[in-house]
C-alpha cells in the first residue's frame, strides 16, 4: 500500500526533493508545487515510503473520480527514481483504478516499459503520446542552472518585451471555444476540464472586436501552459508569442515553474518556442491513455 502524504510539511519537503530531480520529475514537481499553493484540484500525493521515497503518484481524490470514462479527471502524474520499485508499487497497490478510462502523465519516457508491462497484467489498452517539452529560461535559470542549455542562454537573458495590448482573464464562457481548438479536446468532458482550469488557474486572452477571445493561453493543474491558440483568421501576426510572453511573465512573477509542450510535427509552435529561447527536451512530455479491455 502506498502512503498518502497529508501534512503541509511533508508536501513541502516532497516539492523540495523533486526539485533535485528536474527535469525528469517536472510533471510531478509542477503538480506538487500547485498543491502547495492551495491545491485547487484537490489532488493527493502518494509515495512508496517516506521520507526516502522512490516512487510518487499524484491522483485525484476517489470522490472526484465518479465518471469512469472521464480520463481528463482520472489523471495520474508519476515520477520514480527506480522503475522496478515503480512497477511493484503500481501492481501491488490500488493507487490506480485500472477499471476506468485514465491517463498517466510524466516527464520520464522510461516509464513506458513499466506501463506497458502493467497493461498486460491489468488487461488494458495503452496509447502513448510523446511530445517535445519546453521549459522557460526563467525556470531554467532558477531551477536548472547547471543544465548545458541554461548556460547557453544569451548572457544577461531577459524575456523579450511583449507588444502592449489589452489582455483579459479567461472566463468559463470561453471554454467551448478553447475546447474546439484543443488537440486533446472536442468533447463534453474536455470542456468541463477546461472550465475547471479557467476557474482555478491564471489564464489570459486577447479579446477581439466582438468581445470574444481571438488568442488565448491557459494552464492546467500541473502548472503547464497546456492550451493556447489563435483563431485562424488572426494567425501570422505574432499574437500567441506576445500572449505567451505576458502569461509567462505573470506566472514567473508569482514564482511558478513554467513549461509547455508541442507536437513533434508542429513546426510553427516549435519556432515560437525557439524564438522565445525556450529550452526543448525532445522526449520530455509523455502521456499514456489507458482503457480497460
Automatic annotation (TrEMBL):
Gene Ontology MF terms: glycine N-acyltransferase activity; N-acyltransferase activity
Top EC class, one word: transferase
Domain Glycine N-acyltransferase C-terminal: 204-292
A Gene Ontology cellular-component term: mitochondrion
Entry EC no(s): 2.3.1.-
Family matches, as InterPro entries: Acyl_CoA_acyltransferase (IPR016181), Glycine_N-acyltransferase (IPR010313), Glycine_N-acyltransferase_C (IPR013652), Glycine_N-acyltransferase_N (IPR015938)
Keywords: Acyltransferase, Transferase
Keyword Acyltransferase in annotation: yes
Residues in Glycine N-acyltransferase N-terminal domain copies: 2-201
Similarity field: Belongs to the glycine N-acyltransferase family.
Protein name: Glycine N-acyltransferase-like protein
Gene expressing this chain: LOC100517803
